Amino acid sequence: MENRITRLLGIEFPIIQGGMIWCSGWKLASAVSNAGGLGLIGSGSMYPDVLKHHIQKCKTHTDKPFGVNVPLLYPNIEDQMNIIADEGVKIVFTSAGNPAAWTPWLKERGITVVHVVANTKNAKKCEGLGVDAIVAEGFEAGGHNGREETTTMCLIPMVREVCNLPLIAAGGISSGKTIAAAICLGAEGVQAGSRFAASAESSAHASFKQAILNAGDGDTQLTLKELTPVRLLKNKFYNDVIEAYNKDASTDELVALLGRGRAKKGMFEGDIDEGELEIGQASAFIHQIKPAGEIVREMMDEYRQTRGSLPAL
C-alpha cells in the first residue's frame, strides 16, 4: 500500500505506533518499524540521557525508519531536541504545544515534522507553518487529548475539508476495519496507541496491560480538563478525581491530587489503584497481548479483507 504517508515516512504500511509515555521505548518502536510500520519512541517520560539511550538502542535493532514523539510542553525540550538532531533521527512527531516553536528548527536540520491536532483551527495552522503531515486525534484516544471532544469519525472529514496536508487518523484505531474506516473518511494513515500499549514489547507494567485487557466499554473517561485533558481507565485514583469534582475542587487542589509521577506509578510500576492509567476507548476491543509485529500484520490483513468486501456492500 503506497500513498503520501508511506512515501513521506519511508514505510511499507501506513500504520504509526503512538509515542506513549511509559509504554513506547526502543523495543516497541523497533518492533513496529521492523514489521513495516513506523515505530515512535515516547520521549515524554524520558530524561534526555534516557532518550539518547533509547534512540541508540533503536538504531541497533532496526534499519527501518523510526521516529520520536515530543510533547512540546514538557521540560528539557531543548536538550531532547538537540539529542534527536545529534543522533540523526529523521522523523519527529510533536504534540501538546505550539508547532511554531520547533518546526522551523527541525526542518532546517532535514527532519520530517508531523504534528498532532484535535481541531480544524490547528490543522490549518500547521499547513501554514510548514509541517509535513498531521495527526488528527479524536476524542476516543487515550492519554492527553483535545478539549473539543470531537470524535474521530467527525474530526477526520472536517480536517480533510480544510487542510491538504497528508493526514493520519488517531483515536479508536485498533484493527484493520478501523483503518479502512479512517481511509474512507479521508485519512492516508493511522496512528494506534492503545493497541500497542498492550503488546509484548510495550514497556508498560504487566498489571497495566492486564487492566487494558479487562477494560470494557465505558471503562475510560476524559477528565482533568482544567489541567491537561486526559483519558483515564477508571480506578481508585479516577474515583478520587470524581469525588474532588463533586466537592468543587479548585485547580490547585486538582494539581495537588494529581501530584508527581502518578502516570509512572500506574503505567510503568503497576499500581493499578493509585496510578494514573492513560488508555483509549479502543481498550474495550483488546483481548490479548501479542507481539507488535503480529499486530501490524493482522491489522493490514484485516484492512485488505475489509477493502475487498466493500464492493459487495
In N-to-C order, the SSE pattern is: HEHEHEHEHEHEEHEHEHHEEHHHH
Number of domains: 2
Average pLDDT metric = 95
Q: What structural class results from the helix and strand content? A: alpha/beta
* Helix content range: 40-55%
Annotation field: number of helices: 14
The name CATH uses for the topology of the largest domain is TIM Barrel
> Which spans of ≥5 residues are poorly predicted at pLDDT below 50?
none
CATH class of the largest domain: Alpha Beta
Strand order, sheet with most strands: 1-9-8-6-5-4-3-2
Please provide the count of β strands: 11
| CATH homologous group name of the largest domain | Aldolase class I
Structure, explained:
This protein is α/β, with parallel strands linked by helices and 313 residues long. It has two domains: 4-203 and 283-308, Alpha-Beta Barrel (TIM Barrel), CATH 3.20.20.70; 206-281, no CATH class. Helices cover 42% and strands 15% of the residues. Strands 1-9-8-6-5-4-3-2 form an eight-stranded parallel β-sheet. A three-stranded antiparallel β-sheet has the order 7-11-10, with no helix packed on it. Helix 2 (26-34) packs parallel to helix 3 (48-61), helix 3 (48-61) packs parallel to helix 4 (77-86) and helix 8 (176-185) crosses helix 14. The protein starts with a helix and ends with a helix.
